[in-house]
Amino acid sequence: MKRITFIPVIVTAFGLVGMSGLGALSLPAAGPAPSVTLKPDLTIGVEEGDENLMFGAIVRIDLDGRGNIYVLDYKYRKISVFGADGKFLRAITVAAGQGPQEATNLSGIAVTPGGTLFVNDMRKVIVYGPDGGYLRTFLVDFMISSIGCPGTEDLVAIGPHAGKILHVFDPTGKLVDSFGDLFPVPAELEPMKEMPMFGAPILFNCAKDGRIFVLNPHKYEVSVFKDRSLEQILKGESELFKPLQQRGRGFVSTAAHIVSSGDYVFVCFQNPDPKAPKTMDVFKAGKQVGRLEVEGTPRIVDPQGRVYFAEEEGFPKIRRYSVVEN
What we know:
Blueprint: E1 9-12, E2 15-18, E3 36-44, E4 58-63, E5 69-73, E6 78-82, E7 88-93, E8 95-96, E9 102-103, E10 108-111, E11 117-120, E12 124-128, E13 134-139, E14 146-148, E15 155-161, E16 164-169, E17 175-181, E18 205-206, E19 212-215, E20 221-226, E21 229-235, E22 245-247, E23 250-252, E24 256-261, E25 264-269, E26 278-284, E27 287-294, E28 296-301, E29 307-311, E30 317-325
Parallel strand pairs: 8-9
Antiparallel strand pairs: 1-2, 3-30, 4-5, 5-6, 6-7, 10-11, 11-12, 12-13, 14-15, 15-16, 16-17, 18-19, 19-20, 20-21, 22-23, 24-25, 25-26, 26-27, 28-29, 29-30
């Protein structure tokens, strides 16, 4: 199987948002080594053989309350479901199109503790039950670029709307709440502040303990929400972070995946250079304490604090790591 690398971008009427316009970035200095290591304890994926264990492009991973693992494969347009032990359970195929059970942009998935699965199509969400059966589709009257479930049966989505960036939907698609102020726009971008991507990033992450992590698109600050209120702001430094900027007729914004395990928060920026070593900034007690080299991209953390990575070296796979303090 030939390895294929995808760099997530979002094309809108306003231009290009993502990492593809930056070119190669140099690896930042490693900084102090944090007193934590990652120990692998589960791998899902093969290069050849069982097609149920072969992936094309892993773009999202999520978990339900039973520890089942849901994997969105962008290339093969399906969501594969595995047990906590890595055993294949079922797959849901999402055809390309504009019908109720079709999607034009498979931008993300989110799973509730009870096993309700949401599939994001930017202005439409497809909903499946715990058994994988189709339940319903609901429309959203503004663009949502990323979704998540912070340990509840509701859905949280990100996208500037009515002065807020985070929006809560119940399983039927009813908008029940919005929170999180738009991020202030730097003076040099003030004339374009009404464009959607200037107020919020295209990605965010939900922890199963209810916390929500949102990267400021204009500076390396992570807003941490809990119970629909701002809990704290993590401030970091990294040469990989670039503020949102105009490139030609489009715009380029740094994307990051942010996950938490116990007292630690890990921030992994998406580097457009596929040959560059991957790194993950480590925060503890609200302070940046170092950086780890990693093999892939962290996607989700389970209640035991184990981090699930999407890795591509050799062939696409999922690898679960326990977080161990030295």
